[in-house]
Specification:
Layout: H1 2-19, H2 23-33, H3 45-57, E1 61-67, E2 73-79, E3 84-90, H4 98-112, H5 117-125, E4 126-131, H6 136-141, H7 162-174, E5 178-184, E6 190-191, E7 200-205, H8 215-231, E8 239-241, H9 251-257, E9 262-267, H10 275-295, H11 304-307, E10 312-313, E11 317-327, E12 337-344, E13 355-361, E14 367-373, E15 377-381, E16 394-398, H12 410-413, E17 418-421, E18 424-427, E19 434-435
The structure holds zinc ion.
The site of zinc ion (ZN) has 3 residues, from loops.
Length: about 425
Amino acid sequence: MRKAILLSLIAIFVSLNIFAQTPQELADAWDATHITDKEPSDVRHADLKVYIEKLREQGVKVGEVGRSNAGREIYQMEFGSGPTKVFLWSQMHGDEPTATSALVDIFSYLATHKDVPWVKEFAAKLTIRAVPMLNPDGAELYQRRNLQGIDINRDALNLATPEARLLKWLQNNWQPDIGFNLHNQQELTAVDHTGNQASISFLVVYGDPAKTETAGMLRNKRIVSAMTKAIETFIPGHIARYGDDWTPTAFGDNFSAWGTPVILIETGALVGQKELYLAKINFIAIMTAFSSLATGSEATGSTLTYDTLPRNASGTLVSFIFRNVQAAPTGNKASMPVDIAAVAARRRASFTTSIRISRVGNVGGLTGLEEFDAAGFYVVQRFGSLAPGKLAELFFYKKDRVVDWKAQDIIEKFEPDAIFSAGSWTKGEGVVPKIQR
Ligand SMILES: [Zn+2]
């Protein structure tokens, strides 16, 4: 009897080892195999087609399931033949691209490792379908809405867009057991009051305004708990919970209402890291979710990690703060030192960043992703206007410089000691010291 228990314990232990990958192993797997090679924000539909062609060569089952308003192909990938039906979709907002690359790499990995025991287990227990880039026209223009100017994620009931009709049909026709709605949030979204960027935020999406706690919601909380634990060694302090207001016209809410309880993943940004790094974090999180479903560990886990996730916060982070700057003197009175806050607009990775001044003066309550101590400097804005809304094109002069501030073309006559342009130091990097957080 004892021997039998021991043997079954060993069997469980072995199966856990075979079927559960550690987060580090998943990270290594992405490093070694990812086929995405562009920053996700630079991936247009033509680039997705190149990825899809590679996936086909690797044996991924992928086909066109619909067309966008402009006639661009929308694809669905599939893996496995198990009883649990898992559905994912990405980039219904055209300028929210990170998970599209993650999905490509996930299906690439699964297809090329189908003989590995834990991948076999996925195939036996799960059928996984995913639509990468639901809004290819929006992706082309790098805009949230589709070509008709409609937010697909507010079109779940009206169904005025072909993309929304497709998404609803894919759900209705297949009735998945779980859905993953994959988005990006603003890079200045913070984790509560920590001053940290929320690089990944999760939400278990309720299916009604009363937030009824169904078995599916509880399962999803356990799965998010597992995903959070898996990624928190990579991005500690950068994981939060997204706001959970009921949105009656949104797809996540309606999928949950239609019987496919949804987990929302919102990818933010992480200063100093490329976008593909967060695609890798998505890869680790989503593979962990599959693992929870395939091994059944989601049935016994805890919701505690999800329940205690800090909330998303907005309005507390800016991209840059320059502290103690002295505006260049005008007339015969010297100016007072001020702080300047500036924020970057969402953009493609390959595009020049436009950074605008958001506040001049008191920046109390704000944290800059990067901060500089400009106490020893005068500053001139490129077009002579140091005010909110203007470009943060800034020229710094050491205070002991002799400069005729009334001169025309100051910048040409008096070479600045440091130039901050389009979000980086194009001259004199390090001259204005960075404040270490
Ligand atoms: Zn979105």
